[in-house]
Amino acid sequence: MKLATELSVKTLGDYAYQAIQKHFKKASKWEKSVKKDEDPEALHQMRVGMRRLRTATSRFEIALNLPKPARDKNIGKIARRLGSLRDLDVLKEALEKLYQPHLPRKEQESLQTAFDALAKQRKDAFSNVQTTLKDESYKSLKQALEEWLDKPSYQPVASLPIQQVLPDLLLPEVSRFLLHPGWLVGTRVVDSEVTVNTNWKAEKLEQQLTTQGDTIHDLRKQAKRVRYQMELFTDLYGESYAAYIAEVKSIQEILGTLQDSAVMSEWLVDVFKSEIHTLPTLTALLAENRYKSWQQWQPLQERYLKAENKHSFHLTILHPL
Q: What proportions of the chain, in percent to the nearest 5, are helix, strand and coil?
């Protein structure tokens, strides 16, 4: 029975419906658990479900007649509220598991100030999430999606065969990813040739992250968008497509680790103010981890700055099965 269903999914509209149904169902599944604050994993899963739902509604927008409450902007607002709470959980887990055990006793004791601040911030963020999930805009989003899934409405382009439109659907997002200014952070361009600076010391990296950290973070977000969109169509491509998804995921994760460490450093300065000097080991560990992440990033950066790899990426997308 399952095989017959898969074979019948052929048009752009079919894929759009399938993606929206899947991710809406996933996000809704975790809602009760998130409201009760039972499990950090439930929050993580609901946030991912909402983000992927947002990708589906925005990327398939050309093929759909979605009611206003079910559009990208509304979903984004809810995903951000869930994200703010989730980020605090990630921060706490990293402090407890990755850093605290490696600190001298005095610094471990000082960290209690950070945990107290986290608990207060988390209480506020959870209150925001509870309000959001009781909110009229969330209820109307759910209702609108349920009604649309019951009686879907499409634009004319939705009836075209998926293989025919797939490259045009995917390539704009891939191009935005490959042309992102984040690729050029830590490079020099001489006579149109891009060279990656592989000889930076940790201090130089810290200076660059101060001025260009936001650009790197934005590249990470673009990597996530590309990955989520590409993952909607894995069954329509072969191995090289799966390999590109894996690489984009790796880029997203390495830049994510770099970003998380930078965010934690800023957050600690905000909490401890002039007393931040009482955490020298932690400050050094965070900088060391940023440097390690940067070294992991550079081989991928070099690979994706090469014209032949970009060309190969495009060719893969141009040829669905």
A: 85, 5, 15
